[in-house]
Amino acid sequence: MVSKLSSTRQLIGGYNPLYWSPLPQLSETSSIISTSSPNNNSTSGGSWWKTSSSFLFSFNDLDFKIARVQRPQYAIYYDRKYGPGWGYTGDLIIKDSGSIYNSQKSMTYPDASKFFPYTTSSEYDIDEYEIFFTVDSTVNCRTKDPHPGMLME
Fold it and tell me: Which domain of life is it from (predicted)?
């Protein structure tokens, strides 16, 4: 996922080796951890998924930064109410309002808080965001769905 902050020319995004879906497919390297949302509202239907391969990044004309996952058990957050999410404390979440959220207390990706311009708000307007996915080149896309259950629009 790549997003562009409205206030700057900065691009912020992240890599997730799992599926973008409220209920992603399990693999040998991923597992469900919790079914609570970051605000402990159990009615949200959110859950964290474990992976040690995800990371967050930020770059602009002068600088490139990367934040690697330090708490893989909370690497990816899925919720029907939000877009892609990374981290237990909301290290990076796409909100339905067309903004991104960062708690400014990144714990799962500790360096992620340094990506965002310091403000009194934890929400940042974005001009746009794009989600890309990779396809395993060994999968014949004509005969087998490489990402079963993936939500595509």
Answer: Eukaryota
Specify burial of residue 14 (Cβ count, 10 A radius: 0-12, 13-18, 19+): buried
Closest C-alpha to 93, from 37, 27, 17, 149: 37
Q: What is the pTM of this model?
A: 0.73
Whole-number Å distance between alpha carbons of 130 and 38:
24
Q: Is residue 78 part of a domain?
A: yes
At residue 33, the pLDDT reads 54
Cα dihedral angle (91, 95, 100, 102), rounded to 10 degrees? -30
In the three-class reduction of DSSP (H, G, I as helix; E, B as strand; rest coil), residue 34 is classed as strand
| Average pLDDT along the chain | 75
Answer yes or no: are the C-beta atoms of 49 and 78 closer than 8 Å.
Answer: yes
